């Protein structure tokens, strides 16, 4: 131990212990040495250690139990870094960046589907139209004409919301970050689906929430379990992907959507509805929870990453008035505003027939891919689909007597990428589940890739 | 009080009290009613209240003092919303949006200085060059070629840093937000300058930091005060704007820069250097703290908002390796990445002679404006400049026997906007200080505007 003569001794010892707590060198609720023992070990007075422990307690790093001792508090809300680092290393920020030729892991749309030329025209049009306004600060809430256009589009989805309750965001992940920072208080309980989107899980946890997961059934989360939790505990938020969920591809039945809304009213919690895939329906356009939300219990997040182009980082959020003002304030303190250039060019695109043409084209492409993949997957033994998606980009697949990690590695040897299910789990490692995504693979690749997967499964199953 | 029969009584009461704590209906450390009194008031058993208080304690909303009672904890790290709302209402997210013709409040560069046509060319060039890559997800750390180009530029500023230690950010405010979320732990002590940038103050406070301010002198913060604090307390971060500070316009002397770096080493804290104005020197190019940082104690934030175009939301951050990995991870969980379109177009601009031409032009413009304004300000009685800036966009002005609010309102009647000093203060209301910024006013407006200010000051002084 290095002590210097400048700071009071008790503060130097305080700093050492605090650092160790922050760096997870203690476990939660671990007992610290007794005052006498630590004083002896460091060769200082008991009084010094008393002062050290008092300061640690005041700053909430430890708590005292009468007659028992001093224990490490569970307050280090960023302590889950270590665990996350491991995921980060393997999956480069949640995205699988490995050397694979056929990539069922990537959920970013294939660049071939981007309307590059048309969007370039929009960019040039709005620069000529708006000149320096394009590059000046934009309204933190978002470019007003974009909010107007979104408001009009939402009417066709039975969501009636004036532009002032719409907040433009730099993608769905930012929506989750803004909600976490502005609405979720330390210790608030947030329910998520099991499995769910890892970016949301991490955000809520790091924001200090207590995250609870509820298993997904084929038509939504298990409502019996939800009911039991609500009776016993105060829940603040429910984070759901109601249509073509990531990673399972399932959608909530209308009945379940209405039941959840009724529970939100009864138990006074809010639902964060993350709707990034509902434009990608194969047959029938689904409706959101938000469109049925008569009691203002839904905070709605929509991203344009899947249906348009992810690199634009664009989406919007709808929240009840009293919540939105905090969210907008937090948006300002997060990055001031989303770039005007991107908002204005996108508004021009969205407010033209181009939008309908583009989304229709994408739906046809994904439906075709779904059909090809589904028909091949059905024929692979020792694989079981959790559900048959009616839209979106995913299959959630159960492996019989094979771990997802084994299949992941086996497929990778043949340059085929998949995502192990553990990425989508809060707690338990999800043995035997994988997500297959067909966003970034063409029909011929799907055929080749699933053939390789079939062989890999068969080989592993024989082991 | 509305109780329903579904949840246990103790939980319903818990929820009520928790809500009141969150909404600041209690003050910090306020004593809650005794168990007996509250039970009597609500007509429930004592046991129920015991359970309520136990749960509140477990969730850290309250703490108990033996033999004394139950007190409200200081854990609601978002409690300063109310206070902030007032500022937000008056100053629309920190920017003054009032009906003024001559705007000394706005620190955004005038749109006339934007190189719109040239930048449009860059956009078209990179779209044609990179095609779909422009609109796909960008590396969360930032477009590699932009980091390369920045790294090369930094060499001329005596900052030697490889691209891998550079993180692209969506403006300085995002840099502050990322640092807060990834590095500042609950209860960490952060020192700021007095006066300082309100967006940083709010961010640190909302992140749970204990913010301490130290008065600024003409060559940096008061080092005697800093020394005294460091001897007594553990400080985690120091947030400084070392060149052409906002709002005072002062720069740290080289001597003081070196002293602060030595203190950072001795007391093991980090310096967050926010460098958004140093390109705007009138005569001599200043050097950053980062350029002298031999011990990796400086986290450096640079924004391109003032020197280029703020609506692009672009900047970068340099941090020591072990810190940067957390920051990059947090960037991913904040908004995945900064839009590739903007990064690539800007890289093309920055990596051409256009950059030098543009920045030189801006420096000439601002220097001229400074000279005109300075010569007029000198002649206004009852006004005193805190310092004579050597670069940047601001004057920090002391009013003699006039409150800043009075001058603010008086000037506004004549459609001249200024910023009251209280915006830049952590605690005390800053009577008699105002910031005058000449980013968004042309020479003729400066002349007219300062004439009106002179008249306003004279009138108020006679009252």
Quick overview:
Two copies of one chain form a homodimer. The first copy, chain A, is an alpha/beta fold and 463 residues long.
Structure summary, number of beta strands of chain A:
16
Separate helix tally of chain A: 15
Beta percentage of chain A is 5-15%
Please identify, by name, the CATH architecture of the largest domain in chain A. Answer: 3-Layer(aba) Sandwich
**Which assembly state applies to the chains in this document?**
homodimer
End-to-end distance of chain A? 53 Å
Structural class of chain A: alpha/beta
Helix and strand layout, with pairings?
2 copies of one chain form a homodimer.
Chain A: H1 9-22, H2 35-42, H3 46-58, E1 62-65, E2 69-72, H4 81-91, E3 102-103, H5 116-130, H6 144-155, E4 166-169, H7 172-183, E5 189-194, H8 198-206, E6 210-217, E7 220-221, H9 223-232, E8 237-240, H10 254-267, E9 270-275, E10 298-303, E11 315-318, H11 321-335, H12 340-350, H13 354-377, E12 383-385, E13 394-399, H14 404-413, E14 416-417, E15 419-420, E16 433-437, H15 443-462
Parallel strand pairs in A: 3-14, 5-6, 5-8, 8-9, 9-10
Antiparallel strand pairs in A: 1-2, 4-11, 6-7, 10-11, 12-13, 13-16, 15-16
Helix pairs in contact in A: 1-3, 2-3, 5-12, 6-12, 7-8, 7-11, 9-10, 13-15, 14-15
């Amino acid at each position: 131990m290095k002590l210097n003569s400048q700071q009071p001794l008790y503060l130097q010892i305080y700093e050492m212990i605090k650092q160790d707590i922050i760096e997870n060198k203690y476990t939660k609720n671990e007992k610290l040495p007794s005052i006498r023992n630590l004083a002896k070990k460091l060769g200082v007075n008991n009084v010094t250690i008393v002062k050290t422990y008092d300061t640690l307690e005041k700053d909430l790093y430890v708590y005292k139990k009468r007659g028992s001792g001093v224990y490490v508090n569970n307050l280090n809300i960023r302590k889950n870094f270590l665990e996350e680092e491991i995921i980060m290393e393997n999956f480069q920020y949640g995205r699988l960046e490995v050397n694979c030729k056929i990539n069922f892991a990537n959920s970013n749309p294939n660049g071939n589907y981007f309307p590059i030329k048309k969007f370039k025209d929009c960019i040039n049009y709005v620069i000529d139209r708006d000149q320096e306004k394009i590059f000046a600060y934009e309204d933190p809430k978002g470019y007003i004409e974009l909010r107007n256009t979104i408001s009009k589009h939402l009417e066709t989805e039975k969501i009636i919301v004036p532009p002032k309750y719409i907040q433009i965001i730099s993608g769905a992940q930012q929506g989750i970050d803004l909600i976490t920072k502005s609405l979720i208080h330390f210790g608030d309980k947030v329910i998520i689906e099991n499995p769910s989107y890892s970016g949301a899980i991490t955000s809520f946890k790091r924001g200090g929430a207590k995250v609870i997961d509820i298993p997904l059934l084929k038509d939504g989360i298990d409502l019996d379990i939800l009911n039991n939790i609500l009776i016993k505990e105060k829940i603040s938020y429910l984070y759901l992907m109601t249509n073509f969920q990531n990673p399972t591809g399932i959608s909530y039945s209308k009945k379940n959507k209405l039941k959840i809304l009724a529970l939100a009213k009864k138990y006074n919690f809010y639902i964060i509805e993350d709707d990034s895939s509902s434009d990608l329906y194969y047959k029938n356009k689904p409706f959101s929870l938000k469109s049925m939300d008569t009691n203002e219990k839904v905070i709605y997040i929509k991203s344009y990453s899947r249906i348009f182009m992810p690199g634009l980082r664009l989406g919007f959020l709808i929240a009840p008035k009293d919540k939105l003002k905090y969210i907008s304030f937090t948006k300002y303190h997060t990055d001031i505003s989303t770039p005007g250039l991107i908002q204005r060019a996108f508004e021009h695109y969205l407010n033209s027939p181009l939008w309908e043409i583009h989304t229709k084209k994408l739906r046809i492409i994904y439906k075709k891919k779904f059909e090809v993949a589904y028909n091949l997957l059905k024929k692979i033994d020792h694989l079981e689909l959790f559900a048959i998606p009616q839209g979106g980009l995913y299959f959630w697949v159960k492996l019989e007597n094979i771990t997802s990690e084994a299949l992941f590695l086996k497929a990778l040897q043949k340059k085929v990428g998949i995502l192990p299910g553990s990425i989508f789990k809060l707690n338990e490692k999800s043995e035997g589940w994988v997500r297959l995504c067909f966003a970034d693979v063409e029909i011929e690749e799907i055929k080749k890739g699933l053939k390789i997967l079939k062989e890999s499964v068969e080989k592993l199953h024989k082991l």
